[in-house]
Amino acid sequence: MEKSHICGCPQVARRATTLRDSTRGSNSLLGRRATSPSPPAPCESAQIRYPEAWTHIGARRDATRGLAAIQRHRFLSPVVPLLPGSPLTVSSSLAVRPSIVRVSQFAAVLLLLAKAWVMFVHPPVGDEAYYWLWGQKLDWSYFDHPPFHAWLLGLVSVIGWSLLSLRLLAWATLLGTLWIFWLWAKRMSPGSPSNWWWPAVALYLASPLYFAMTSIVFHDHLLIFLVVATAHVLLVFAERFEAGHRDFRWLYAAAVLLGLAVLTKYNGALLGLGMALFFVAHRPVRGVLRTPHPYLAALLSIAIQAPVLWWNLNESFASYTFHISERWGGTIPLELHPNGLSRYAVSALLWVSPFVFPAIAGMFLRPSGAPFADRARVLALCVFGISTLTTGLLSLFVDVYFYWNIVACPLLFPLLAG
User: What pLDDT shows up at residue 222?
Assistant: First the structure.
C-alpha cells in the first residue's frame, strides 16, 4: 500500500476539523476505548507509515470516508493519528472482555493442574513405552513413524527411566507452544497481551484432542509444537517481506522446522501443503514465488527426510508399504463409503471441540483488521483447509482416525481468543 500524504489538501484539513469536533466527547472507537491523543506530527511527515494497513487516507480521499472504511474493516494498527493534529487515534489492541479473561485464567489453571496429574501420576500408555524403547535403539527411522521423536526420547533417557524423563518432552513442547502463543498475543494485543493469551491457552487446553495429545508422549505433541513454530517463523518472514526486507533466512528456517515436523510424523506434510497455498492466497507475498527461494526451501525440507528414505531403502520400503497398503489389508480401497465421512466429521467435531467451530467458520467470512492477525489468519485457514479436506477425502475410502487431522487446528486457537 503506498504512503498517502494528507497535509497538502485544504479540503481534507477542513474535513478533519469537522470530524475532530464531531467526535469530542466520544469515549470509544470501533467498540473499544479510544487512546490518549498523540502529539501533533509535523505537517511534512504526516503520512500513514504502515504499508500493512487495510485502508489509507489519501490527499484526494474524504476524511469521513476514511473513518468509515476503518470502521468497516476494524482497522487496528499501532497507535496512528488519523489526521495531523487530530486527537482521534486507533488503538492497536484487539480487546477481550475482562470477565472472559478471568474465566479463562481459572479454566487454564485447572486444566494445567489436570495435565500435571496425567503427566506425573498416570502410568504410561502402551504406545508410550513402545516409542520410549525406540529411543533406546536409535536407528535411521522406524516401521510406522519417522525417527525425530525417538531420537529426542533417546536424548532425555540419559537422566534415567521414570515418568518424569518419559514425559519431560511433552512438558517442553507444551511450554514452547504456549510461549509462541504469547508472542502472537503481544502482536495482536500489545497493550494487554495477557488478556489475549489466557483465553487462547484456555481454548487450546480445553480441546479434548490437544489436551490428550500434549499430555502423553506420542509423536503428536512434538508435531504440534513444530507446526506452531514453523508457522511463527514463516509469519516473521512474510511480515519482513511485505515491509520490503528480502531476508530469506527466515524462510529457510521455516523450511528446516517443516522438515523436522515431517521427520516427526508423516502427516506433517499437510503443513507444507498449507504453506504452499499461503503463498498463493496471501497476495502481499506472492512475489516471493517469482524467486528461487521458496523452491530451494522446499528442497531443503525434503532433504531432511533423507534418514527415512535411507532406512526404507534398506528395509524394502517397509514403512511406506505399511502406510500405503498393509494397514488397509492391501491397496487403499477405491469403493466409496459416504458414511465414513460423516463418522469422521462427528469424531473430529467432538474431539477438537464443537464450541470452536462456529468461530472458525467466522474466520473464513471476515478478517480481524489487524495486520499480523489477518496474515496469521490466512496461513491458519490454509493449513486447516488443506489438512481437513485431505483427511475428509481419505475418509470416503478408509477409516480415518480423529488425530490424523491434528495439524489442522493448532494455529487457530491463538486467533480465536477475541
Answer: 97
